[in-house]
Amino acid sequence: MQPIGGQAGSQAIIDARVLTEALISHRDVVRALQSYDAERRPTLDDITLRNRQLGPEAALQVVEERAPRGFGDIRDVISSGELERIASSYSKAAGLDVASVNATRF
């Protein structure tokens, strides 16, 4: 994970809650860790792959490519819809979108 935007801290909090739930649900520690791993690995793998493709900084890359000499108004370079799609895609993958957070059992 990239060390900006609080992503690692947010994921650490989710990890702690999922691990706690797994340890409470399984008497055997090995099974608890396997359960935790099975639940968290797909999300974290997806986040890692997205980070390798610039993650939430994708918007900055788009702006740099479109306006290498700068710009007067960001709306002339990238639309609010594009910015929203980039942000929501990453939030959803990280499990931080509203629907995912509300569905999380903590």
Main sheet overview: none
Number of strands: 0
| Large-scale geometry | elongated
- The average pLDDT score comes to 84
Helix-strand sequence: HHHHH
Low-confidence parts, pLDDT < 50 over ≥5 residues? none
Distance between the termini: 23 Å
Structural class: mainly alpha
| Helix run count | 5
| Count of individual domains | 1
Work out the radius of gyration. 18 Å
Helix content: 55-70%
Strand content: under 5%
Based on the model shown, name its key terms.
0% strand; 106 residues; 5 helices
Task: Explain how this protein is built.
It is elongated, with a radius of gyration of 18 Å. It has helices at about 5-25, 30-50, 60-65, 80-95, 100-105. Helix content is about 70%, strand content about 0%. The protein contains five helices and no strands. The model has no long low-confidence stretch (mean pLDDT about 85). The protein has one domain (about 5-105). The protein is mainly alpha-helical.
